[in-house]
Amino acid sequence: MYKKTALGIIVLFAVLVAGTCFAQETKDGEKVFAIQERVFHRYHEVSLNFGYIPDEDFFNAYPIGIGYTYHFNHYLAWEVARGQFMITQEKDIKSTLEKDFGVTPEVFLEPKYMIHSNLIIKPLYGKEALWNKGILNHESYLIIGGGMINYEKKYSNGETDAESDPSISLGAGTRYFLGKNLCMNLEIRDLVNMKKDNTENNIYFGIGLSFQFNLQPRESERDEAVDRLKGYLEEKDSHE
After folding, report:
1. Which DSSP string corresponds to 173-229?
2. Are 69 and 79 in contact (CB under 8 A)?
3. Is the pLDDT of residue 220 over 60?
4. Of residues 120, 90, 115, 84, the one with CA closest to residue 105
5. Whether pLDDT at 19 is above 50
6. Who contacts 189 (Cβ-Cβ below 8 Å, separation ≥6)?
7. Which of 45, 109, 114, 185 could join 69 via S-S bond, C-beta 3.0 to 4.6 A?
8. Phi, psi angles (nearest 5°) of residue 103
9. Taking 50 as the threshold, does the pLDDT of residue 103 lie above it?
10. CB neighbours of 184 closer than 8 A, spacing ≥ 6?
11. What is the C-alpha separation between 110 and 198, in angstroms, rounded?
12. How far apart are CA 63 and CA 204, in angstroms?
């Protein structure tokens, strides 16, 4: 299961990524690359996330939550915290076992919420023409981190208990910039949940909307030619 999940993440990441430069052949066969700086970079990001976990044993789980990410630079970020509450829907397998076979699982776990903190590596950036009417910028990233997941532990006799277990998060995603401050994230994550009885892998498919901002204006790059011109004009004004 783990090997299939890891392979799926690699394949998805390869599909989501886009080229970061354009190449053109010169007369002597040497390739010339034109690489552009990334735009829409902001240091802070607050996100609203929606997801789907299809492979829980007895429930379909739909996580919904919020997160905060700090971007150190164009290539590295820290998802400081992502908290998600689980909306669950009971699968048919449980009711089928009870109605058709008269068998109820002795213990089954219903996921309730999870909290993770992740390192985000952003090696790839690109842009696409949208219907030849606009440019859509995006960056692809890898996710690695950990946290915890909470379950409601239900027994066949009707009693309930709570269980919290460590969880490892691995994945990949792409962020599409819809404007200077708004972006949409598409992700797939492998959640390795180390339950008390066994370790379980769950696949998370997610979509999110993020608002990016700076707490203070970024220092603009200075042009030496413009500085010299300003100095010349100021000096000229002082002599007049």
Report:
1. EEEEE-SSSEEEEEEEEEEEEE-SS-EEEEEEEEEEEEEEE-SSPPPPPPPHHHHHH
2. yes
3. no
4. 90
5. no
6. 143, 169, 170, 171, 203, 204, 206
7. 45
8. -115, 130
9. yes
10. 175, 176, 178, 207, 208, 209, 210
11. 15
12. 9
H/E element holding 127? strand 107-129
As a whole number, the mean pLDDT across the chain is 83
Of the candidates 120, 119, 127, 131, the residue with the CA atom closest to the CA atom of residue 17: 127
Asked whether the beta carbons of 49 and 82 are under 8 A apart, the reply is yes
Picking from 79, 84, 81, the residue whose alpha carbon sits closest to that of residue 61 is 84
pLDDT band at 159 (very low <50, low <70, confident <90, very high): confident
CA gap 56, 200 in Å, rounded: 9
* 3 state SS of 37: coil
- Tell me the two tokens of residue 158: 């009707």
Q: What three-state secondary structure class fits 163? A: strand
Helix (H, G, I), strand (E, B) or coil at 99: helix
- Mean pLDDT (whole number) for 203-225: 80
Q: How far apart are alpha carbons 237 and 231 in whole angstroms?
A: 10
Please state, in angstroms and rounded to a whole number, the distance separating the CA atoms of residues 98 and 149. Answer: 27
The more confidently predicted of residues 13 and 225 is 225
Tokens of 40: 């829409």
CA atoms 213, 214, 216, 219: torsion sign: negative
pLDDT band at 4 (very low <50, low <70, confident <90, very high): low
